[in-house]
């Protein structure tokens, strides 16, 4: 059975995606995350639908944890416990309210969680992704400062990894929670564009894709926000207001199903380097922000990220080396 690895596949948009995928014939789901108890609850729910579900412990904000998880995944593949990776879905993500916090590696938490962890995971597993397999990043329409989504959450800053890891350390006013989030999602799209370029140069048929699920209420994304904000976000009044403001709206079911399509549907086999958006029950390819097509910024982000995750020569895949 081909395997689909999904981070954050036990909750929110990821869980809805997992439900869609497990209903397909011959799929093994590898749920990757840091909370094995919560993941097991979701796994039992998914197994009840008849599919095979395995767990992979991984805190995506910790480089050590990502390396351990990637090594475990390789062992599972080499031993035949799971079959080759049909898709890797980089879906875990978070917003961090309150004082700026840092990962075990000393990097600002939003950038560590939403960017560097998945960057390292893909570097370590890309050679185990099947030909014509997919790498999908759950980004966000909020990355685009020219849209209502981007303006409301906070206009994305420069996607400079060397600055973003140290946000809040210099004594200056740190970037807001919203700006750190939207900038991290801009970086995810830049990774997809740079990855597409590198894979094409290496004559690989692996397909990297960026995904905007739209604004989806009721997931765990706002969990660090004040309770009233979390409650308000789920009300129909708030949804009405957001729609009037021009925010890209979707439902958890629709966006989860859209992510599942990007993972396996032949219709997206030619989606390499592209950006797809879920909006009001429509799922279409869109242009991402102007900055997301800045090739120099993408290359710098990539090479800086390689240094920040301390990528060793023996970890470097030829598939992603052609910068
Ligand atoms: N909801 C929206 O409106 C919206 C809009 C645009 C984009 N997105 C993106 O969609 C993706 C899914 O979010 P969601 O809305 O479904 O929220 P969610 O329910 O909170 O899901 C986020 C997932 O990420 C996991 N995660 C967070 N930090 C992690 C870490 N350090 N290590 C491993 N896993 C970690 C969480 O696991 P735990 O259970 O361990 O916390 C959770 O499973 C995110 O990338 C988010 O940025 C969401």
TrEMBL record:
Coiled coil: none annotated. Belongs to the short-chain dehydrogenases/reductases (SDR) family. This is SDR family NAD(P)-dependent oxidoreductase. The keyword Oxidoreductase applies. Gene3D superfamilies: NAD(P)-binding Rossmann-like Domain. The lineage of its organism: Bacteria, Pseudomonadati, Pseudomonadota, Alphaproteobacteria, Acetobacterales. The keyword Protein transport does not apply. InterPro entries: NAD(P)-bd_dom_sf, SDR_fam.
């Amino acid at each position: 059975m081909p395997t689909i690895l999904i981070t954050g596949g036990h909750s929110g948009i990821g869980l809805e995606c997992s439900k869609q995928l497990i209903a397909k014939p011959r799929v093994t789901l590898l749920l990757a995350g840091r909370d094995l108890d919560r993941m097991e609850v979701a796994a039992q729910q998914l197994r009840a639908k008849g599919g095979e579900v395995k767990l992979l412990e991984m805190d995506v904000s910790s480089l050590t944890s990502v390396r351990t998880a990637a090594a475990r995944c390789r062992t599972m593949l080499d031993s035949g416990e799971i079959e080759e990776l049909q898709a890797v879905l980089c879906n875990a993500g978070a917003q961090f309210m309150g004082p700026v916090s840092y990962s075990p590696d000393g990097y600002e938490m939003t950038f560590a969680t939403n960017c560097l962890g998945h960057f390292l995971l893909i570097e370590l597993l890309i050679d185990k992704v099947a030909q014509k397999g997919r790498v999908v990043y759950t980004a966000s329409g909020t990355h685009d400062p020219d849209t209502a989504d981007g303006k409301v959450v906070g206009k994305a800053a420069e996607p400079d990894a060397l600055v973003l890891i140290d946000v809040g350390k210099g004594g200056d006013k740190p970037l807001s929670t919203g700006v750190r989030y939207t900038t991290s999602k801009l970086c995810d799209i830049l990774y997809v564009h740079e990855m597409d370029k590198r894979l094409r140069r290496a004559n690989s048929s692996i397909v990297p894709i960026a995904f905007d699920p739209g604004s989806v209420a009721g997931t765990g994304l706002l969990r660090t926000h004040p309770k009233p904000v979390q409650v308000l976000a789920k009300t129909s009044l708030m949804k009405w207001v957001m729609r009037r403001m021009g925010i890209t709206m979707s439902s958890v079911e629709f966006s989860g199903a859209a992510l599942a399509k990007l993972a396996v549907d032949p219709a997206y086999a030619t989606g390499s380097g592209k950006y797809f958006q879920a909006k009001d029950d429509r799922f279409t390819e869109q242009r991402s922000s102007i900055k997301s097509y800045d090739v120099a910024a993408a290359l710098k982000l990539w090479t800086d990220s390689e240094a920040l995750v301390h990528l060793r020569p023996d970890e470097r895949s030829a598939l992603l080396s052609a910068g």
